[in-house]
Amino acid sequence: MKHRILVIEDVAELRGDIIDTLECLDFEAIGAENGQIGVELAREYLPDLIISDIMMPLLDGYGVLEILSKEEPTATIPFIFLSAKNSTSDIRKGMNLGADDYLTKPFTIAELKEAIAIRLEKQAARKRVEEQLRERETEFRQLVQREEMLKSLTKQIRTSLEIKTIFTTTLSAIRSLLGIHRCSFLWDRTDVMQRYFELINASEDPEISNIPQCNLFLEIAALGELILKSNILQINNVLTDEQLNDISKNQLLALGVTSILAITIKTNSGQIGIIVCENFIQPRVWSNNEVQLLQAVGDQLAIAIDQGELYAQSRFTATTAKIQAAQLEQALVKLQQTQAQLIQTEKMSSLGQMVAGVAHEINNPVNFIYGNVNHIKNYVHDLLELLQLYQQTNPNPSPEVEELSESIDVDFILQDFPKMLNSMQVGADRIRKIVLSLRNFSRLEEADMKPVNIHEGIDNTLLILQNRLKASKSKPAIEVITEYGDLPLVECYAGELNQVFMNIIVNAIDALEDDQSQRQQAGLPDKSYIITIRTQLIEPDHVTIIIMDNGAGMTEQTKKRLFDPFFTTKPVGKGTGLGLSITYQIVVEKHSGKLECISEPGQGTQFWITIPIRQN
C-alpha cells in the first residue's frame, strides 16, 4: 500500500511539481492550496506525512502545525516544513513548534526523498513500539484473565458437591491454567505397617503421547518422603535437582518426567491429599506465582472435599434443597423474562414519544422551506429574465462586468439555478413524507384501540426502512412486493401493530442480508431478494397479513423456539431475542390473534398474522 503524503503549497506550479515528484517516487500525493484547506484534508485523509510551506494566505504553515499537533488523530503525523525562509531563527521556530524536519527552497529531489524516508522510517519505528506496547498489554490482560480463571475455578470448586466432579474439574483446570502435561490427585493412605499413596484422578494433555500410566509417589518412595516432610515439592529439573538421589533421578528420567510441582492439602476429617503437577520432554522452572496459585487452589479443594463429604452424609436433604432451588431458579428466570419484556415495551413507548417529538420539530421548518420554494422559484425566474434582458439590451458591458461574469460563469448559473431549486423542492417533499410516516408509525396519540387502515401502517413501516432496502456497495437491493386485498378498517392498537410489522420485516431483511453474505463467502452467484407482503380478508371477521421472504429459511428446531424470550440466532450484541417474543405477545395476547411461522431450509420464511376486525 502506497504512503499518502499531503502537500500544502500556495504556489500552484511548485505544488504540482512536488506532487509529480512524489508520485514518481511511488507515493500517493494530495495537494492543498492554502493552510485552511490543508488542515481540512489532513483531518479527512489522515496522511502518513505532511509537507507544508510557511508563507501562505489565510493560514500559514506555523498555524497549520499548531492546529494539527493539538488534535489526537493528526498529532502523530510527521510534519516537514519546505520554505524559502532559511534563517536560523525561522528554522528554530519551526522545529520548536514540533516540526520533524525543515527543508529550504530551492531543494533537490534527493534531499526531499531522504527527508521523507527518514520520517516515514521513524514513524514506522514508533508504530512498532506501540505494537510492542499493545503486546505487553495483551500479556498483562492474559495474566489478569488467568487470575479471573482462578477465581472462576475456585467458585466452581466451592459450589460443586460431587467429589468426582470436583476432582475432574480441578485437575483439568490446573493443567490448563499452568500449561502442564499431567495433573493428578493422591490420597495418603499410609498406616503403621506401610506407606501407600492412592491415585484418585488425573488429567493428561491429549497432545502428548506415551505418557507413562503410573503413580510416581508409589513407584518412587523418595518423593513421598520429601512431600510429607515439607508439604511442598518443587523440582524444576530432575537432572540437576539436589533433593533427589541418583536412583530417584534415573527412575524419573526413565519415565520421561523432567519437572514436578506438588503440594499437600488437609481436610477437616484429617485426610491428607497431594496435588501433583508433572512436565515431560523439557524441564520447567516453576515461578513463585504458580506455586501460590496451586496452594490457593489446594485450599479451595480441601474446602470443597469437606463440603462433598457433608453432602454424601445428607443426600436426602440436599436433593430436596436442589429441587427447591430449581423451582426458585425457574421462577427467577420467568421473572427476569417478564421484567425484560416490560423494559423493552417501555423502551418502545419512549422511542415512540421521541419519534413523534422529532417529527413535530422537523415538520415546522420543512413546511416553511417547502412553502417558500415556489416563491423563490418565481423570484429567481424574474431575476434571470431581467439579467437576460440586460444582456440583450447592453451587449457590450464594461470590462469589470465582463470579467466578473466570466469568473462566476453566469451562463452556467442561468442553467443550474432552476435545477437546484427543483432539487430542493423534491428533497423538501421527500422529508415531509418521511416526517408524516414517522408520526403515523409512532401513533402516540392513538394509545387506545381504534379502527385503523392496516395498509397505511405497513406503508409507513416500509418507508422508514427504505434505507435498509436500497442497494449499497456491499449488498444488492431488496425488492418489496405488496399485494393488498380489500380490507375494512381493523380495530387494534395501531402503534403496537406497527411494531409487529417493523420486527418481522427487520428480521426478514436481516435474514436476506445474512443469506447474501453466506452466498458471497461460498462463491455462489447473486440472486434477487424479495419480501412479499400480502393482506386478505378471511371469513367475515378476520384479516391476515402475510410477510414472506425468499431467504435461506430455518430449521424445525429453530422454529420451535422462535417466539421464546431471549432466543436469537444472531451473533452476540446483534439481537436481544425479545423482538419476536414481544411480537407474539402483541398479536396473541393483546389482539386475540394468531402468529404462525412457515419455513423450511432453502425455502424462505413466511409469517402469518391473523387478527379479528373487531375486538370483543
Automatic annotation (TrEMBL):
InterPro entries reported for this sequence: CheY-like_superfamily, GAF, GAF-like_dom_sf, HATPase_C_sf, HATPase_dom, His_kinase_dom, HisK_dim/P_dom, HisK_dim/P_sf
Reaction catalyzed: ATP + protein L-histidine = ADP + protein N-phospho-L-histidine
Protein name (record): histidine kinase
Coiled-coil region: 119-146, 318-348
Nucleotide-binding keyword on record: no
UniProt keyword list: Coiled coil, Kinase, Phosphoprotein, Transferase, Two-component regulatory system
Organism: Crinalium epipsammum PCC 9333
UniProt-listed Pfam families: GAF, HATPase_c, Response_reg
Histidine kinase domain residues: 357-615
GO molecular function, one term: phosphorelay sensor kinase activity
Enzyme Commission code: 2.7.13.3
Domain Response regulatory: 4-120
Main EC class the enzyme belongs to: transferase
PANTHER family xref list: HISTIDINE KINASE, SENSOR HISTIDINE KINASE
Modified residues (4-aspartylphosphate): 53
